Amino acid sequence: MSLEYQMYGIEQPLALALAIPLLIGLFLYIRRPNMTKKKWVYYATRSVYLVLLLIALASPYLLKTTEKFQDTAQVTILSDLSDSMSLFAKEKDIASDLFSSLRGQLKNATAMTV
Fold first, then answer.
1. What is the DSSP code (8-state) at residue 88?
2. What is the pTM of this model?
């Protein structure tokens, strides 16, 4: 069982439940009448260490979303530059114009292979 909230997650949330009896015990122990300030600081810091240890045992993690381009389509533009295509002189450069147009729309995410 795991617990997730916004961008954070905890794999073992029951480990955090152990911090509640620890803090209650600390509160009851500190309220004793013969508790000096030195003892109070000692037990408070030890309790902080134990709470941090319980947080580590709960296995916290960060959620991260990434977008990967998978299975992208490959487009091949063929251009016939043979003499037989000289009849279409005005369309001779259409392949390079099409490639330039596509490259501009895809923000240079294309690779030109020959």
1. G
2. 0.49
Domain C-terminal end among 42, 62, 82: 62
User: Could you tell me the two tokens for 59?
Assistant: 């296995």
Longest dimension (CA), the chain: 106
Number of domains in the chain: 2
CB distance 26 to 80 below 8 Å: no
Give yes or no: residues 57 and 9 share one domain: yes
Query: How far from chain centre, in Å, is Cα 50?
Result: 29
pLDDT in tens, 46-85: 888 988 998 898 888 888 877 776 666 777 777 777 777 6
Please compute Rg for the chain using Cα positions: 34
